Amino acid sequence: MLSGLSFVLGGAASGKSVFAEGLIENSGLRPVYLATSRVYDAEMQEKVDLHISRRDARWETFDAPKDVAAVLSCCTSDQAVLLDCATMWLTNVMLDEDDLATAQSGFLSALKACPAPVVVVSNEVGQGIVPENALARRFREAQGRLNIALAAQADCVIHVVAGLPQCLKGEMP
């Protein structure tokens, strides 16, 4: 049964979003999709459209590139929230040059206070080579720290590789 905070992470195109959508759909609760991406080009729009095509009319969708707390604070215990994804949220915070510590603290507090079960999707970015530019290196470090904090707070942590989920913490919902 889905409850509390579940954290689903994996590499790009690993199947983590599809897996997380399944957790929400199988919860028996009203599905909520909290989208954090910003669309800057046609390629990103195609990716967003693909995600939208997988969800039926039962899903209520909110766009919150940074202010996830506003959406999470309005959710109720008869809903299940998919926040997809923490990586795009972090990208938005860093590109807007917001105070990262304050933003991350607010993000984690909002997750903890949400009365609905929440599934957060995030990318594992620390298994590749060291990026060649300073912004990419700062992002990789910040994403690693955010993932560590999310995993520590989560009741369940699932790593998805090639579409296969591996439970790292807690019990698979």
Structure notes:
The chain is α/β, with parallel strands linked by helices. It has a single domain (5-169), classed as P-loop containing nucleotide triphosphate hydrolases (Rossmann fold, 3-Layer(aba) Sandwich). Helix content is 41%, strand content 23%. Helix 4 crosses helix 6 (134-153). The protein starts with a strand and ends with a strand. The model has no long low-confidence stretch (mean pLDDT 94).
Please outline what is shown here.
The protein is of the alpha/beta class and 173 residues long. It has six helices and seven strands; from the N terminus they run βαβαβαβααβαββ. The radius of gyration is 15 Å and the shape is globular.
Domain module tally: 1
Number of strands: 7
- Oligomer state of the chains in this structure: single chain
Please identify which CATH superfamily we are dealing with: P-loop containing nucleotide triphosphate hydrolases
Distance N terminus to C terminus? 5 Å
Number of helices: 6
Biggest sheet strand line-up: 3-2-4-5-1-6-7
CATH class type: Alpha Beta
**Which percent band covers the strand fraction?**
15-25%
Q: Strand count, sense and closure of the main sheet?
A: 7 strands, mixed
Task: Choose one word for the global shape.
Answer: globular
CATH topology: Rossmann fold
H and E string: EHEHEHEHHEHEE
Whole-number average pLDDT? 94
Classify the helix fraction into a percent range.
Answer: 40-55%
